[in-house]
Amino acid sequence: MTVTEPGTGAPDTGVPAGRRRWALVLLAGALALDVSGVAVINAALPSIGDEYNIDGSTLQWTMTAYAIAFAGFLLLGGRVADVLGRRKIFAVGVALFAAASLGAALAPTVGVLIAARALQGIGAALSGPASLALLSQIFPEGPQRNRALAVYAATGGSSFSVGLVVGGALTDFLGWRSVFAVSVLAGVLILAGVRALLPAGRRQPRPLDIPGAILVTLGIGLVVYGVSEGSEVGWGSAPVLVSLVLAVIGLAGFVVWEKGRTEPLLPMSIFRSRSVRAASLTGAVFYTGAGGLLFFSPLYAQGILGYSPFESALAVLPVGVVVIISSQIAGHLMSPAAYKPLMAASLLLIGTGVTLWVGTPQDGSYWVDMLPGIVVMSTGQGLGFGAMTAATLEGLPLHQHGVAGAVNVTRQQRRFGDLGCCFDRCQRRCHKSSRSTVRFPRGILGGGRHRAPGWADRSAHQVSQDGHHAISFRGEAVTVQAGRT
After folding, report:
1. C-beta of residue 215 within 8 angstroms of C-beta of residue 254
2. Is the entire prediction scored with pTM above 0.90?
3. 113-128: buried (b, 16+ CB within 10 Å) or exposed (e) per residue?
4. Fewer CB atoms inside 10 A, N or C side of the chain?
5. How does pLDDT run across 224-277, given as a tens digit for each residue?
6. Residue 14 burial (CB < 10 Å; 0-12/13-18/19+)?
């Protein structure tokens, strides 16, 4: 069934009521593919480095390339979806992600792998905003959309922890290339259902704003590059300073350019909505706190408690379970009047979870010192994700939902992408110093009393200190922000 693209009134969703549940499964599956694309490679990094015999600075680009491409192309992806048709751009994005995953699985050199990761990021940037816009088109505003957003939120919040486990298991049993092979299979399955389950649309007579897209893509990409490289080579290094200065120039130029456009790439009018501003501010703090704890928990488990990559992934698996439960509760509570209370409660719980993590001792145990903070933080994630997403769309015309979705995903990717690169560097320090140590027998999640000998333990201790300092800073920010909301 062909429907008018949203924005011309109150449209028919274009999807029969009986198929909407399957459409939601399809869209949530695409979100899981995008989010897990960041997570599944974490456990595979040491194996990739060994096979290609590359140093850490080169290895980190398997993470950074994805982050830069994803963050840089998100706004353009949202605009292209609004103009050219959401189903079409969604399918193109998933297809590009799957094709890039195949290229990564078969990559003969690390250069090919890095290029494939960048293409994965572009594919995710196209499908991500389109999937959220399609969800808002398929499910009418009200209880139906709130329940759909709860499922969407549960998928997004749990996919990272599940991706860590899946990536660890695949790497341990089938090798690192299987991580990307599974993404190919998932992409093909999603594409098989696109035509039957998602509404078609038609091109809208609006410009794409190519100059604005170039400016914002370069600006955001340079920010991600500068932040990721700054902690690796030093904030005073010439490449970092040049990239950050050029990023400021590019983003300032983007703002000036957009003010003179009748059809801007990012309509600044969307930020006149109090709910959109609240969601954007909440999201910035939300993903910083939650992302920090989610990345440094496996680091602590591997570097201090002595867990293997797969065991450390199991350690954060409760995140997915708790997010699913709490997001379903939030879905029953959601309404425009409940958005801000849910977001405030979310930040308060995330701040509490991070604070519990800050007190974790070096000789701690999983059950007493790690799990409580993980559970509290995950409860906050589940309560807040759907409310933030719904508030981002509230009061906006439907033809702007693609760009609004891009804004929603951008704030998530900026935080997780930067922290992902940080975690990658810290994880390499653990593996570099412990690669030659003896593996001691231990029970999974058993409290971790076995230590790597001597110099390996000292390196892990330093990594843990780095992580605790970063978490402490972010925990304070989260707690303060919760009090102001």
Report:
1. yes
2. no
3. bbbbbbbbbbbbbbbb
4. N
5. 788 877 767 788 888 889 999 999 999 999 888 888 787 787 777 777 777 777
6. buried
